[in-house]
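<amino_acid_chain>
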Amino acid sequence: MLSGSLVAMVTPMRGDGAIDHTAWDRLIDWHIESGTAGLVVGGTTGESATVTDEELAHLTQRACERARQRIAIVVGVGSSSTATCVERARRCSQLPVAGILVVTPAYNRPTQEGLYRHFAAVAEASSKPVILYNVPARTAVDMLPATVGRLSQLGRISAVKEAVPGPERVRELLAACRQGFVVLSGDDATAREALLAGARGVISVTANVAPGAMGAMVAAAIRGDGESAARLDAPLAALHRDLFLEANPIPVKWALAQAGRIERGIRLPLTELSAAYRPAVLAALRQAAALQ
């Protein structure tokens, strides 16, 4: 069962947009050393919209080989086309991964029945556990707890990454879903409250730059130690907020470059963090002791 602090990995790139595989290896090693519970390859933070299927497969295979089963690897296969998503799920589930992450279709705004059928088709095509991903702020569709509850009855679907903020959505999901179904927070700013409400982990942007601190906070919240979790979360609060001053992953990639972990590469239509926001992100990094 996936649990703990999972990182929504950035895809490190050089100035010309080419993937930096050496930096990729270094990031994986750092997360393993820092106690991160899992790596999510090719999600929103990994610039999934501009990473090709061939690049995604190579990054995932390389992550699995580098990790050597010391950490869970999850790969994002979402698409607004059900047929494309089914084919990606079939192909990527043949890789040595712990699961596949499937975001709700963006832009075309399906009904709840359409969402159910989309994910059911993906689950049928996959040979690995499927993690649903609901992020209405980016996709313009909210997969409701009742729909997740229906999908949780399908054996291949094992978890949901829920980015609707706050603990109430977590409680609704747990009430709607089969016993043992895993809820993961997809919102760093409210992850602590979600965990205390019954979520089993978080797929985190903040963990890209503060993996050890994020892992410690998540562990405290999962064991029900709200006081310790709040104390550990306080220095991370500015990161939770300021890593979203511009569209993710713009701020987090700039932050990692400032820390010397990656080059300052990002693919259009995304651009480097605006100068006006850089002091706030630097201050947040220092507050979290994520910048020496």
Notes: The first helix runs from residue 21 to 34. The mean pLDDT is 97. Residues 45 and 249 are 5 Å apart (CA to CA). The radius of gyration is 18 Å.
